[in-house]
Amino acid sequence: MGEAYRKIFWGILILTFHINLGPFQILPNFVGYFLMASASAMLFDRYGFILFQKGKHIAGVLGVLSLVESLFFFMGGSVFAPFSSFGPLLFGVLELLFFYHVLGGYALSLEMNGDKEEREQKLRLQRRVTVLLAVQAGLYFVFSVLYLTSIMAFVLLFSILVRLYLTSIFAQLRREEDGRSLEEHSTGSESADTN
User: Fold this and answer.
1) Residue 24: what pLDDT?
2) Domain limits at 174?
3) Buried b (16+ CB within 10 A) or exposed e, 20-32
4) I need a surface site. Which of 48, 98, 104, 164 has the fewest CB within 10 A?
5) Residue 78 covered by a domain
6) What is the domain count for the chain?
7) pLDDT at 77
8) What does DSSP say about strands 24-26 and 19-21: parallel, antiparallel, or unpaired?
9) Is residue 145 part of a domain?
10) Backbone phi, then psi, for 17, in 5-degree steps?
11) Closest Cα partner for 173 from 1, 53, 16?
12) The CA-based dihedral angle spanning residues 37, 53, 83, 15, taken in that order and rounded to the nearest 10 degrees
């Protein structure tokens, strides 16, 4: 299942860094969100946890909203104006919910495997990420309601740092999951050899 966490990793990178060519984006945000939805579907198929299914639905909603946002951008600023002020807050809250569910599902999979100590570490990580994303959503809210352009650079820098932190988390989860798969595979082949 390391592949699912790899997809989330790439989805976050696409959300963080995209290239604009005039009005067009190479790998727009909705591609990253749909990639994350696909990864959540893979995790749900593997484990059957409702947390992964909720993550899939949330990432799908984010993808559709991002696609609509892209279409609004092409229609002109007047159509896009109401969405541009509260859109970042909506995206921030939905991203918080997505990562909360996916990290909670990962912790649940560790519990299912009997690794309670590692589960507790991942639950602490889930809380830390939730707090960071809540602060980010709060900053989006303050920025959108009060129109404080003075903190715009800080909000953008904080958002980039949070996303880079998330990419490092999911790179680590991918490595852990790949290592776990190798252990299961080697244990399975050893038991087949003894028979």
Assistant:
1) 76
2) 2-182
3) eeeeebeebbbbb
4) 48
5) yes
6) 1
7) 59
8) antiparallel
9) yes
10) -125, 115
11) 1
12) -30
3-state percent breakdown (helix, strand, coil) of the chain, nearest 5: 90, 5, 10
Residue 162 in domain: yes
Here the tokens at position 95 are: 């991203």
Q: How far apart are CA 6 and CA 172, in angstroms?
A: 10
Closest C-alpha to 69, from 59, 82, 55, 57: 82
Residue 189: what residue type? Answer: S
Residue keyed to tokens 């799908």: 60
Mean pLDDT by 10 residues, the chain (195 residues): 93 88 82 97 96 98 91 69 74 96 96 92 97 93 77 88 97 91 67 53
pLDDT score for 193: 55
Residue 191 included in any domain? no
